Amino acid sequence: MVWINTRVECEKLADGMEIAEDVLDSSGRILLKAPQTVNGSLKKILGSRGVLSVVTRTWRDKESDELLLELRMEIAALCDRHRYLKDDPRRMDSVKLFARAFELSKKICLPPGESLCNQLPTTKQGERL
């Protein structure tokens, strides 16, 4: 699960929501320090100060596609950091250990047959990460 921050109009705030970022006035002064849990009186205070929207946060499960991309990106970064090891077995041992730890903690793994350091994800411009 991950925190998702979302801008919400004050009139749509519900009791129990959590304000994730400090609320500032037009001069940059703090009107409300985060985190704060929304309740009726807090909504009135925000309204009286002319606040139109705030950033709230909620927990959300990551989709498996998001987690798989995250795993691939982390493996690519690890392979890049270990590039000086080239074909040294320690490079792959390190990458395999990381991948296994990620798989256990996030409950997701690379598809069967997908290699770890040979097929690195690419950016939109086609550069290897």
Describe this structure in words.
With 129 residues, this protein is an alpha+beta fold. The protein has two domains: 2-60, Molybdopterin biosynthesis moea protein, domain 2, CATH 3.90.105.10; 62-107. Helices cover 35% and strands 19% of the residues. The protein is built from three helices and six strands, in the order E-E-E-E-E-H-E-H-H. It has helices spanning 40-48, 64-81, 89-106; strands at 2-9, 18-19, 23-24, 30-32, 36-37, 53-60. The strands form two sheets. The protein has a four-stranded antiparallel beta sheet, with no helix packed on it. A hairpin with a 5-residue loop joins strand 3 (23-24) and strand 4 (30-32). Helix 2 runs antiparallel to helix 3. The chain starts with a strand and ends in a 23-residue tail after the last helix. The model is unreliable at 119-129 (pLDDT under 50).
